[in-house]
């Protein structure tokens, strides 16, 4: 009897263990398939979410835990937002945590920011949470050193600090910080360039701020410019004097080039005149070589008398004597020397 009783107890214990193991396996499967912990967390937080909706989210591949946490935070902050809106934003590849935190920050700061606007800003690629923070706490943008030249030719390097506040309504499609910095640089260059002297800018740096602010540089951007402060002004080079020196050097080179051109033309003209002179002398020598022949032919034909010939010889002798006294060489000898 004792043995039978022990066997029965042993069989009952094994059956209980088996049942317990099966229950644990069933509970594990149930907990793995059903988001009971998430549902219970929402329930104790005072937010009711149907189990069927949580199961549908899980089957659609949505990360349920961040979505439910964001929904709980929104409800605790008093936001009028549904879990379906958050689910659609997650399905659109949006960052639901940033959107909810941005809405909570805007609600705490009494800013008007609709949930649709926040979701649109996030889907546009903007950091909606940072935009709300910048809208609540203005941001300071420091420009790099911007070089500008006054009318007297002196260069000024100006640094400015721009205090901006995010404009939520223009955040979608509005220009960013780079556009603000570029427009500030344009305003600085315009203001300094229109000044008669760099001393005027050094005496009244606030003129730059006034001119830039009056231009409405924040139009079309995602920011609203609150103030522009000149942080530093350094005097640079005398660009006007440098340009004048460069211009004088350029004029000097042009004049030298023109003078060299005129000298080359003069040398060429001189060479041409020498060539023409030698050519004329050759023609004269050739013509003179024909004179004796012509005289002989004239004597033979009786066209030239003996006395005429002697008179011509006297004239030639007189001419040669005068040339010798004047130091003028015979044309034939000068041509020969030129050829040598």
For the CA atoms, what is the radius of gyration? 54 Å
The 3D shape can be described as: elongated
Question: What is the terminal-to-terminal distance?
Answer: 160 Å
Low-confidence stretches: none
Major sheet summary line = 4 strands, antiparallel
What is the succession of H and E elements? HHHHHHHHEEEHHHEHHH
Portion of residues within helices:
55-70%
Output the number of helix runs.
Answer: 14
Written description of the protein model:
It is a single chain. The chain has 340 residues and is α+β, with helices and mostly antiparallel strands. It has 14 helices and 4 strands. It has helices at residues 2-33, 36-44, 51-59, 64-76, 83-91, 96-108, 115-123, 128-136, 177-193, 198-203, 206-214, 239-301, 306-326, 331-339; strands at 139-142, 146-149, 154-166, 223-238. Strands 1, 2, 3 and 4 form a 4-stranded antiparallel sheet that branches. A hairpin with a 4-residue loop joins strand 2 (146-149) and strand 3 (154-166). Helix 4 (64-76) crosses helix 5 (83-91) and helix 4 (64-76) packs parallel to helix 6. The protein is elongated, with a radius of gyration of 54 Å.
